[in-house]
Specification:
With 292 residues, this protein is mostly helical. The chain contains 13 helices and four strands. The chain has a domain of 112 residues. The two termini are 40 Å apart.
Length: 292
């Protein structure tokens, strides 16, 4: 993905922070505010931040660490501190509500309302780019085109996807891929060649779209247990006890493994299927006494 130049705004005079509508967690705004002040003034502390918000230093620290939420009584002080009003203040309020919501579906709906507050001119994410990430089948269609040697047969493409998609969805995916530069038409559009993408996805919408994609393909992983023959899949899990260093090492190992997978995939001269590999490392239990 190619990078883009992100517009920045001043929350406070002399302190440059990311454009507020790029955040999808209000605590990151407060964290960046703290770090900017700390960078310009080494004496700036969590105690100072806490006083501004009407909180003690430990509460301010835990907010920055995303271990606690901002109390209702501190919200006005936070918006004043960040210089937020109008749409910016409304956006901040919605992010607070989203952070307190346990339902992922409800959270996604609240974030979508928040995203609607953005200026169209400020959007770094176009509709097609958002659809590319959030509609799981579009990514599959691109890989399937490679398997089919660039031939664009809409009914066959729709039927080949597991689970099958509609011909309308397949056609829309083709148009999205064309508009983003993933494929280039040749031979009167009956055939295409794969090309380098031109994605400018940034900010909170990108994060939400990727989460949506991950959620969907993980559901497919569950369904494959009953719908895909064992000889056509490989599923295994490991439950393990680790320390913080072990956790960081595992993340690094997974990163290297993804690189190795890509190197091997690049050696596939004549691919005949599209596979989905899901890697998920997450806690199922924590030693809360130790955390305290």
């Amino acid at each position: 993905m190619c990078g883009v130049l992100k517009i920045k705004v001043y929350f406070t005079i002399g302190l440059v922070m990311a454009e507020i509508f790029d955040y999808d967690d209000y605590r990151d705004m407060i964290k960046d505010y703290y770090l900017e002040h700390k960078k310009h003034n080494s004496l700036y502390s969590f105690s100072t931040l806490g006083k501004t918000l009407g909180l003690d230093s430990s509460h301010a620290y835990y907010i920055v660490q995303k271990k606690r939420n901002l109390p209702v009584h501190a919200v006005p002080a936070a918006k004043k501190m960040l210089g937020l009003d109008g749409r910016g203040a409304a956006y901040f309020d919605l992010l607070i509500v989203a952070s307190r919501t346990k339902s992922e579906k409800t959270k996604a709906e609240i974030l979508q309302k928040a995203f609607q507050l953005r200026d169209v001119k400020r959007h770094l994410l176009k509709d097609n780019e958002l659809k590319y990430l959030s509609a799981w089948w579009t990514i599959v269609v691109r890989a399937l085109i490679e398997v089919k040697h660039g031939n664009v047969d809409i009914p066959e493409i729709a039927n080949s996807v597991i689970p099958p998609i509609t011909e309308e969805q397949a056609q829309e995916s083709i148009e999205i891929l064309k508009s983003l530069g993933f494929i280039q038409p040749i031979n009167n559009n009956s055939k295409v060649r794969l090309a380098d993408p031109h994605i400018t996805v940034q900010g909170a919408e990108k994060a939400q779209a990727i989460r949506s994609f991950h959620s969907k393909v993980m559901q497919f992983g569950i369904r494959s247990l009953s719908e895909i023959p064992p000889e056509n899949r490989d599923i295994s899990t490991i439950t393990m006890a680790v320390d913080s260093k072990g956790f960081e090492d595992l993340k690094k190992m997974l990163k290297e493994f993804r690189k190795e997978i890509q190197i091997r995939v690049d050696k596939c001269i004549v691919p005949d299927r599209v596979m989905q590999l899901n890697l998920a490392l997450f806690p199922v239990a924590l030693n809360k006494k130790k955390e305290k």
